[in-house]
Fold each of these.
Amino acid sequence: MVMMRSGDKPVVLGNNSRALVSSQDNWLMLTLLGGDNYTSSCNKEERKAHIMFVCDRMQAELEIHTVEMLNISTSCYLLFVAGHKSICAPTPASGLSGGSIFLIIVLVTFCAYFTFGFFYLRLVRGAKGIEQIPNREFWFTVGNKLADGCGAVCRCDQYCGAGRPPSSYDGYSPIEERLAQDLQNTDRDSALLSP
C-alpha cells in the first residue's frame, strides 16, 4: 500500500495486491491500482500511481521524486521516478570466450613445437633443408590421411563395398571346388597343411 499525505489526512495511492509490472532493459515500471477515490476531480475514480525505476549507474541510494500528477480526460495518475544502479542491464563482458582461448593455446603450442623443433634439428643435429622439419615423415602423410578419412566418411560406396558385386568382397572368399572335395575325401588337417 502506497500512501501520501494530503493535508492532515493520509491518502492511499494504490495497493500492492493490485500491482502491474512492466519493464525493458534499463527501466521497470510498477503500477499500483486500487487507491482511494478522488473527491472532486478525475470523475471520482480510484487513484493509481506509477513508480518508474530507471537506470542510473551513479546512484547508489534509492531516491524517489514526484514528477507530476497527470489529469488527462481518460485517466488520472501520479508518476514517481526513482533512479538506481541495480535497474541497469548488465554490461556485456568484454573479453575472449573459452573457445577462443583454447584455439589460441593450441595455435601457440603448434607454433612453439615447430619453432623449437626446427632450432633443435638445425643447431643440435645439424640438419639442412627439408630435414629441419620436426617429425617430417608424419607431417608428409597427414594430408593423405585426412583425404582417406574424408573419403571414407563422404564416399562410403567405394570403401564399404556397396558398389561391388558380393563375390568380390575382400572380407570373404568362397571355398574353391577342388579344396572342398579334398576336404571330404581326405583327413581334414592334412589337406589344410599340405602345400
Amino acid sequence: MFQYFITIVPTKLHTYKISAETHQFSVTERERVINHAAGSHGVSGIFMKYDISSLMVTVTEEHMPFWQFLVRLCGIIGGIFSTTGILHGFGRFVAEVIFCRFRLRSYGSVSVPLPDGHTSNHLPLITDNSTH
C-alpha cells in the first residue's frame, strides 16, 4: 500500500519584478507491505490524500533604505568598539591583579617625610586652635 499526503497552501508573491498568485505544496509518502498471512491487513493500492489549507501566505519583498543601512552599520561598529573596550579593561584589570600581587611583596611600606614634620602622606587635621 502506498500513501501520499499532499498539503497545498495558497500563496501570493509580491516582488519588484513580479506579482503572482501561486500554491506551495509538500508531499509525505508512506509505504506498507500488506501480507494477510502475517497478520497485516489493509487494501492494496495507491492512495493520495489532499489537504488544502484555508490560510493564505503572502510573501512581500521590501528593500531597506540606504540611511537605515548606515544607521545599523554604525550601531554594529559602535557595539564592537564598546565590547572590545570592556574586554580590554577587564583583561588589563586581571593582568594588574596577577602581576602586581607579586610586586607588592618586594615593596615595603615607605613613609615619606613632609615639610611640616609629619611622616605620613595624609594631611594633618585642622582645628580651630591651630588657626589662631
